[in-house]
Every structure is written in C-alpha cells, then in structure tokens.
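fyi for ur records
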Amino acid sequence: VSDTLGNVTSETVLGIFTVDISNLTPGKASQTIDFTSPGAVTFGDASFALSATASSGLTVSYASSDPSVATVSGNTVTIVGAGNTTITASQTGDSNYDPATDVPQTLTVNKATATVTLTNLTQTYDGNPKPVTVATTPINLSHSVTYDDSLVVPTNAATYAVVAIITDPNYQGSNSGSFVIEPANDLASWKNKYFTEAEQTAGLANNNQDPDFDNLLNLAEYALGTDPRMFTPSFVPTLDGNGLTLTFTRPASLPDVTYFAESSEELGSWSIIPLEVTVPGDPETVRARDPLTTGDPSKRFMRLRFETP
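which gave:
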C-alpha cells in the first residue's frame, strides 16, 4: 500500500462492528420489605391494618399461617381466636424488580378476661350431690369446678374450697370461695355429719350406741346437740328451795325428736315433769323442775328421755 507521495506503508484492518442498543434488556433491580412486628393483641380486639413497605414502592401482600387465629384481607387483620400465627409479608416483583425475600412476623392473640361468679355457696344436705352455681361474663363459657381439688360434686355435709376456672379457648378467668353443705335438721343428716358410710353400715351410728363412752347414747347426743365423738359430762340435778331442777341446752327446732323430763322415787314408775324454755335462741336453755310437793322428797330421781317417730 502506498500513499500519494509514493511512500510505502503497512496497516492491518481488523473490522468494524455495529451494536443496536435498542434491543438490549437491562437486569431487574432487587428490593427489600420493611415489616414491623404487629406484636400482641387480645381476643375481641378490633381489626387493624398492617403497614409493611417495599423498597421498590410496590404493594406488599400478606398471609396468615393460622386462619383460626387471624385472617388477612388486603392489609386488614381480623382476630378469630387466641393463639399465635405467623403473618408473612410478600412482594412478588414486576418487570423491573425481582421478588423480595418474604418477611414473617409473629402475631400473638392473648385470651380475653372473663368474669366468673359463684352463687349457691350454702346448701342443705339431702343425700344428693350439691353443685355450686357458676355464671360467666360473657355468658355460657365452658368452665371446670373443683371441690377441695376434686371434680366430684360433694354430697356430705361439710365445708369445701371451691374453685371455678374458665376452660374456653379464647377466655381466661377464675373465682374461688368457701362452699358449705349444712347438715339438715334431722337425725339422718346428723348421723351423716358424724359417721362415715362404713361406720353407719357397721351400726356405730345406731340410736342406742355410745361411741365416746360418756353414757349418752347417739339419740341423746343428737337431741342435746352434742358431739358423739367427744365426751360430754352428765347432767346433774340441783336441789334448792324451789325443788329439784335439771337444766340443759338443746337445738331449738329438731323436727324428729320428742323430749321428756321425768321423776321417780324408786326408779320403777316415772312421772312427767313440765319442760320450760328459760333462755330462747338456738341452742335454747330448758329447765325441768320437780317441786317435791308430793311423795317422799328425800327419795327423788330425775331423768331426760328422748323419742323419735
């Protein structure tokens, strides 16, 4: 190759390339999600909005892992039940952004507080189980009741520690109190108070038995309102200017026992002596007086006698 002056030159031509930039596709940008934990709420709370944001500015979607705890529609969370669920924020990307990495956050729904009311805490023995009455607010919530830590509803006359606890999955609450089954005002109930079922079967509670060997039979212990398991001193008449007097106390209104005061000169035949209530109340004080105006006043005995129907 020579130039116009006739000089010889050397040149290597590799080629000429043309690029059409109109057909180039640029790479998608990455994005991230900023999602603050919704924290803890309480069953019964109102629905609330989520506020996650994507760095791309695109709309974030949400999903709940446990719809029995909470559901999500759009960005609104509705509480369904107590428990824990995972709320996941997602952004799937578009023509300019790759999908963002999902961001999960835990939502805790605490149980709501319920009120428990106990009534019927004093009842009377009749041989049947005696449950207390439990009311809840909100009404009709499931609950358990124990009596001295037992689920068995008691029958016998006694005092029990009663506890009612809400078992509803969405509520919590409890109440406790003292539950009393009072002995009924009759001999059968009195026996159930002082004697076990086995002792009654064995005859220890029979009217003519004397478990504490104090010379007061069970019927007398019942009529006088004393404890058949504890020694009770004998009643001793007193002699004064008004005659021979025997004073004792008794329950005021036992329905199934009749009281008799009697006197005798020879322990053979007995004469009825009137009974007089001197101090009313429950128990009441009663007096029996023999004025010693008949017979031999130097030979006189007195006794109390009790009968049941």
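The longest helix spans residues 187-194. thats all i got for now
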